[in-house]
Specification:
The protein has 546 residues and is an alpha/beta fold. The protein is built from 21 helices and 17 strands. The protein has 2 domains: 107 residues, no CATH class; 347 residues, Alpha/Beta hydrolase fold, catalytic domain (Rossmann fold, 3-Layer(aba) Sandwich), CATH 3.40.50.1820. The chain is 39% helix and 18% strand. Pfam families: Lipase_3.
Length: 546
């Protein structure tokens, strides 16, 4: 995300070498953006760092000043328009979401309209007031209520030795496998699942509450549920008050959530970490996804501020990256009983790796959860956690937004002692993998890993290294016909796919209505975890072109 161009290239290069956080950052404070500022971005030619709502590091500001007008400012303006719309919709969406989920659970738990009437007569009406109950489902589970894992066919697992978690590709020869052992009477049965099947389902159920996830992991999948973790998101600074720092207050919310499981309780081969993604009615999540702000993190490169905060960033204005995101959590966090996702999950992994000496780690997430799944291992490598990083077998993300620049994209691979299979799956014109906008030199966001892009009817292809999915910033007008054609095609497919593939692919009215929203905004419907599950199960990935 260097701001240099022309005569400013040398200055930016020298600044990059110093790797000082206070010198390399671009923080856009959307709450301070006015309508006149948006017009200025569109009409005037002035450096982005000269605006009152931008906090830029010294090197960033100097490079921008030498460059003058920065190309791509219309995308910055568009981002701020989106941010204003999301901010205005925050409370309406919050209350609408709560009402919709209450209504859908009320109808579902009572067995439909007829069931509601019958339960009223019997004085057994179910009122879903407890959102933490194991039978309470989020909007995501209402769109796709499937919980069963789909085993691999025997032919696909031929030649794979027992209890192995292999590294390698997905949905092809050499696919990583997770084996589940079941006891049926006197017989020991074994089922094998690709890591893609396990990760896409784990990233889907990560949207649910702790009791729901525990029930699915333990009773449906017959795996071992380790724990559910709801951690603090540093939306603003930590305030320490009182004599000697004895009082502390966190301003933020417990919005970073993840769960951990193993495929069995003893001598596990796989430890899976799954991050919760962008909730449909949570405008704060959507705002984080599209935010263009970034921070220089030394050797890690430039990294999205919102995703760092979600994991435990401590200081935006620190003088160096080690202080901004220290290796150990702040003492004040323990003082008030708050935990940050990075530190909590790192401790859980350390413990699980000691308990399971032969296990490998798999990290996954959908949407915002995919971004955290990409950033978490990179931070482990940044802090020199070699014992953990060397045990990471794979990172699989679905509909993941961009997380950092080209340096960040290659950081984990360059700093892992053993290869990590980083696979990123994108379905059609899903908007989230196309944000934050790639707006060099303002915000030079790049994707990392191997991208498997699914076009229509679950036909996939592996993109070349560094290649973006079509319509990389989403708003290119030449893709309009294709985008709306895809939305109509997906709606039609949803109504009839079950006739060919079976009852597991029959979609209910909630899913159909959600897809219909794609007729207005195609990138929204394509973001559904349901399509990612179907793509993994039904998709065919063409061989990578030389």
């Amino acid at each position: 995300m260097t701001m240099a161009g022309g005569g400013g290239a040398a200055a930016a290069a020298n600044a990059k070498k110093k790797k000082k956080m206070g010198e390399e950052k671009l923080i856009i404070m959307s709450e301070k953006v006015r309508f006149i500022d948006i017009l200025s971005l569109l009409l005037l030619r002035r450096p982005i760092t000269s605006y009152h709502f931008v906090d830029a590091g010294d090197a960033t500001a100097a490079a921008a000043g030498e460059l003058g007008s920065t190309p791509g400012e219309w995308l910055v303006a568009l981002t701020e328009i989106i941010q204003k719309a999301l901010a205005a919709a925050y409370y309406p969406a919050k209350y609408l979401g709560a009402a919709v989920e209450f209504f859908l659970n009320f109808v579902s738990l009572n067995g439909g309209v007829i069931g509601i009437l019958w339960n009223i007569v019997r004085f057994k009406l179910v009122i879903p007031l407890n959102r933490e109950a194991p039978n309470f489902r989020s909007m995501i589970a209402m769109i796709d209520g499937r919980t069963e894992l789909k085993p691999m066919k025997p032919a696909a697992t031929a030649g794979v030795e027992d209890d192995d978690l292999e590294s390698g590709g997905c949905a092809a020869a050499g696919v990583p496998l997770i084996r589940r052992h079941l006891v049926d009477g006197e017989h020991l049965l074994a089922e094998q699942y690709s890591i893609s099947e396990v990760t896409v389902m784990a990233s889907k159920i990560a949207y649910e509450n702790a009791a729901y996830i525990e029930n699915v992991v333990n009773n449906v999948w017959k795996f071992n549920f380790v724990g559910f973790y709801s951690c603090w998101n540093r939306s603003t600074n930590l305030v320490v008050a009182g004599n000697g720092g004895c009082g502390a207050e966190f301003i933020g919310s417990e919005t970073t959530q993840a769960f951990v499981m193993t495929e069995r309780a003893t001598d596990a081969a796989a430890i899976v970490v799954a991050f919760r993604g962008t909730e449909p009615f949570n405008m704060q999540d959507w705002s984080t996804d599209v935010n263009l702000s970034w921070l220089g993190m030394a050797a890690m490169g430039h990294v999205h501020v919102g995703f760092l905060k979600a994991l435990g960033l401590q200081e935006v204005d620190a003088k160096d990256a080690a202080r901004a995101f220290p290796r150990e959590p702040p003492a004040a966090a323990a003082l008030v009983g708050r935990s940050f996702a990075y530190y909590k999950l790192r401790d859980v992994l350390r413990d699980q790796l000691r308990r399971h000496p032969n296990a490998r780690v798999v990290v996954t997430g959908h949407s915002l959860g995919g971004a955290l799944a990409a950033a978490f291992p990179a931070l482990l490598a940044f802090h020199g956690e070699a014992d953990v990083v060397s045990r990471i077998a794979a990172v699989h993300t679905y509909g993941q937004p961009r997380v950092g620049d080209a340096t960040f994209a290659g950081f984990l691979a360059a700093n892992a002692a053993t290869p990590v299979a980083f696979q990123r799956v994108v379905y059609r014109y899903d908007i989230v993998p196309r944000v934050p906008f790639d707006v060099p030199p303002v915000a030079d966001f790049r994707h990392g890993g191997t991208c498997v892009y699914y076009d229509g009817w679950y036909a996939g292809r592996t993109l070349a290294a560094g290649e973006d999915a079509p319509n990389k910033n989403y708003f290119n007008p030449k893709y309009i016909v294709s985008m709306y054609g895809n939305a109509w095609g997906d709606l039609f497919k949803a109504m009839f796919l079950w006739a060919k593939e079976g009852k597991d692919y029959r979609e209910g009215p909630v899913s159909i209505v959600y897809r219909a929203a794609g007729l207005l905004f195609p990138g929204l419907a394509s973001h559904s975890p349901r399509d990612y599950v179907d793509a993994i199960r039904l998709g065919h990935v063409a061989p990578k072109e030389a």
